[in-house]
Amino acid sequence: LGDRIRAAKATLGDRAVVLGHFYQRDEVLEHADFVGDSFQLAQATKSRPDAEAIIFCGVHFMAETADLLSTPDQAVILPNLAAGCSMADMADIDSVTDCWEQLEDLYGTEQGADGRVPVIPVTYMNSSAALKAFCGEHGGIVCTSSNAETVLEWAFERGERVLFFPDQHLGRNTAKAMGVPLERMPMWNPRKALGGNTSAELESAQVVLWHGFCSVHKRFTVDQITVARQEHPGVRVIVHPECPMSVVDAADSYGSTDFIKKAIEAAPAGTTFAIGTEINLVKRLAAQHPEHTIFCLDPVVCPCSTMYRIHSGYLAWVLEALVGTAERAPEILNRIQVPQDVAGNARIALERMLAAKP
Ligand code: MLT
Q1: Which of 321, 339, 338 is CA-nearest to residue 330?
Q2: Phi-psi category of 267—alpha, beta or left, where left has phi over 0 and alpha has psi -120 to 50?
Q3: Is the pLDDT of residue 66 over 50?
Q4: For a pLDDT cut of 70, what percent of the chain falls above it?
Q5: Separation CA 60–CA 156 (nearest Å)
Q6: pLDDT in tens, 5-39
Q7: Cα–Cα distances in Å, from 164 out to 149, 175, 194, 299?
Q8: Ligand 1 mean position to 87 CA, how many Å?
């Protein structure tokens, strides 16, 4: 498969660019022209307007983002259409719209004396294009794990509060680090049967959190950190901000995959790291840094099952289809296209993010 991928890429030359997320398996990433987190891959998309095809080795919302940031003539291809994101699926446009309307009833829609509106919606990159469009339409913005604090600052300059979706943990960990007290970050709960939200907690809210989470990062625990510290005295524990707050609090530091990568690169040789993020990245960092000891905090490792759905067979399949054969005309398979009625506003929210962090 590796040979077939290399051959197809060589034939396509600059006509095709392969983007790969840090969480992809190594046998896929070895063919990527750009490797990075979702923010870096969004920038990479914009840097190659010459490529006719952008093959996105990541998950569906990332390919949607690439489509939004590419030119109309470019085709964005997701090698396996089943590569979704369970966290992104935890917030849908109907539920968020319903929440928004209830918050508007509560807070009103008028700007305050300081020019700020009552609520700014902020969506994590891990969300559908429809939710990005919702943010674009309602004065909001997109964030990634590498710029969440910058984006929340942007939002608080324009709004008295934030509605943050879908990842409760990234929202809570980031707002907490910025000094927002926990009691001012209620989780949106419209269901009275499940306790509901009290009007007092919503009235004093600075950040209203959605109930989404990442099934990989949710697995990391404080007990794992305790064991790592017992077994490896002096270990540095770094976790991702999609981990629960108790885990982030117990770690030495936390940050996006790019943050983790740079922290390891900057450490003196001989450092031991316990890392709380997706296993493909942890294993790759361990292989790239033999001068350190690097292991995953979770001993029963749970990979990101949707990132795993891209494998070399799918990559070879879509690349060879682009090349075509003597018997078969070139073909674009698995194209991801955001509908026009969603694309305009979604792009606005994304461009606000790209402008908030150059
Ligand atoms: C992303 O933004 O790509 C993911 O949240 C992982 C990360 O880079 O932290």
Answers
A1: 321
A2: beta
A3: yes
A4: 99
A5: 29
A6: 999 999 999 999 999 999 999 999 999 999 999 98
A7: 12, 10, 20, 31
A8: 13
From 41, 60, 256, the mutation candidate for ligand 1 (largest count of ligand atoms within 8 A of CB) is 256
> In the chain, what are the domains?
2-85+306-323 (3.40.50.10800), 88-213+345-356 (no CATH), 217-296 (3.40.50.10800)
Cβ of 145 below 6 Å from ligand 1: yes
User: Which atom of ligand 1 approaches the CA of 126 most closely?
Assistant: 5
For residue 256, the CA-to-ligand 1 centroid distance in Å is 6
Interatomic CA distance for residues 171 and 257, integer angstroms: 17
| Number of neighbouring beta carbons within 10 Å of residue 231 | 11
Closest CA to 151 of 127, 128, 170: 170
Pocket residue to mutate for ligand 1, from 21, 34, 37, 354, most atoms within 8 A of Cβ: 37
Which ligand 1 atom sits closest to the C-alpha of 144? 2
Model ipTM?
0.91
Q: What is the pLDDT of residue 357?
A: 61
CA–centroid distance, 146 to ligand 1, in Å, is 7
Question: What's the token pair of residue 206?
Answer: 């600075």
**85-130 pLDDT tens trace:** 999 999 999 999 999 999 999 999 999 999 999 999 999 999 999 9
Mean pLDDT of the chain: 96
Q: How far is the CA of 238 from the centre of ligand 1 (A)?
A: 14
Mind giving me the DSSP string for 112-135?
Answer: -TTS-EEEEEEEESSS-HHHHHHH
What pLDDT score does 358 carry? 45
Contacts for 223 with CB less than 8 Å, ≥ 6 apart: none
Query: pTM for the complete prediction?
Result: 0.95
